[in-house]
TrEMBL record:
MF-aspect GO terms: metal ion binding
Keyword DNA damage: no
Pfam families registered for this protein in UniProt: DUF34_NIF3
Residue sites binding a divalent metal cation 2 per the record: 64
GO terms under cellular component: cytoplasm
Protein name: GTP cyclohydrolase 1 type 2 homolog
Metal-binding recorded as keyword: yes
Family membership: Belongs to the GTP cyclohydrolase I type 2/NIF3 family.
Length: 261
C-alpha cells in the first residue's frame, strides 16, 4: 500500500486530532510515494528497533512514543537522535506515532489495560476539552480483593516482576482507576470517583508523600510496565482493520531500561 493511502487509513483509525497540544503524533517521517507492505509496532524507537526494522524489511514503524518530540535544529550522526534519524531516512523507513490520542480513543491503551484487568462498569476518568477527549478509565473488579491478592493479580495480568505501592490505608480493593504511562496528576480524579486503588507510572517522591494515608492505594507499575502492552493492543486493531493488505509485526528489540537489583 502506498504510504500516502496508509496514512489516511491510520489517521481515520487513530484520530491524531485527539492528541494533546504538546504532543507530536501522526506521520513524522516518510515518503508519501513509498510502498509499504510490512509495518513494525513498538513502544518507542531506539537504534536496536531501527536495526530490527531493517533486518525485517520493514518500511514503516508505528511507535507509541514520538521520536521527534522537541524542535530539531540539525540532523547529524554526532548524536544518538541524529544517527537514528539518518539511519531511518537512508533505509527509507517511515515513522508514524500514536501517543496521547491512543491513550484517549475508544479501544486504545487505557481500555486495553482495563480489559486485561477484567474491569466491569468501565468509565472515563478525566475529561480534558470534550466528552470524547478523556484520559484514563475506572471500573470494578469482578470480586473484591485484599491488597496482597491485588498485588499478585496485577503482576500476573500486566506481566510485572515488581512494582511500587503508596499505601493509602484501605485494605480491600474493588474499584480501580488507571492512566497508563505517567499520570499521577489524575490521581485526584480517581479519588473523587471513589476508587480504592489507582494505577499509573513515573510517580515522584513528593507526589507519593502527598497521597500517603489518604484512603486510596496507588501503585506505580512503571511507564514501561503499563505501556508495553501498546504493541499487542495496536497489533490487534491493525490486523483487524488492515491485516489483509499489510503484514503487521511487533518489535522484540525494545527492553525495559530499568532492572530491579
Amino acid at each position: 500500500m502506498q504510504l500516502e493511502k496508509l496514512k489516511i487509513k491510520l489517521d481515520e483509525l487513530l484520530n491524531p486530532n485527539l492528541a494533546y497540544d504538546w504532543d507530536n503524533v501522526g506521520l513524522s517521517i516518510g515518503d508519501k510515494t513509498a510502498h509499504v507492505n510490512k509495518v513494525l509496532i513498538t513502544l518507542e524507537i531506539n537504534e536496536a528497533v531501527v536495526d530490527e526494522a531493517i533486518s525485517k524489511d520493514v518500511k514503516l514503524i508505528i511507535s507509541h512514543h514520538p521520536l521527534i518530540f522537541r524542535p530539531i535544529k540539525s540532523i547529524t550522526n554526532f548524536d544518538d537522535k541524529g544517527s537514528i534519524l539518518l539511519k531511518l531516512i537512508k533505509n527509507s523507513i517511515g515513522v508514524y506515532v500514536a501517543h496521547t490520542n491512543f491513550d484517549i480513543i475508544e479501544g486504545g491503551l487505557n481500555d486495553y489495560i482495563s480489559n486485561l484487568l477484567s474491569l466491569n462498569n468501565i468509565n472515563k476518568l478525566a475529561y480534558e476539552n470534550s466528552d470524547i477527549d478523556a484520559i484514563g478509565r475506572y471500573g470494578e473488579l469482578e470480586e473484591e480483593m485484599s491488597v496482597e491478592e491485588f498485588i499478585s493479580f496485577i503482576k500476573t495480568k500486566l506481566n510485572l516482576m515488581n512494582l511500587r505501592m503508596v499505601y493509602g490505608g484501605n485494605t480491600r480493593i474493588r474499584k480501580v482507576g488507571l492512566v497508563t504511562g505517567s499520570g499521577i496528576e489524575y490521581a485526584k480524579n480517581a479519588f473523587e470517583a471513589g476508587c480504592d486503588v489507582y494505577l499509573t507510572g513515573d510517580i515522584k517522591y513528593h507526589d507519593a508523600q502527598d497521597w500517603l494515608g489518604r484512603g486510596m492505594n496507588i501503585f506505580d507499575v512503571g511507564h514501561y510496565g503499563s505501556e508495553i502492552h501498546f504493541k499487542e493492543n495496536m497489533l490487534r486493531i491493525l490486523r483487524n482493520k488492515l491485516g489483509e493488505e499489510i503484514d503487521f509485526v511487533v518489535s522484540d528489540a525494545l527492553k525495559d531500561p530499568f532492572r530491579a537489583v
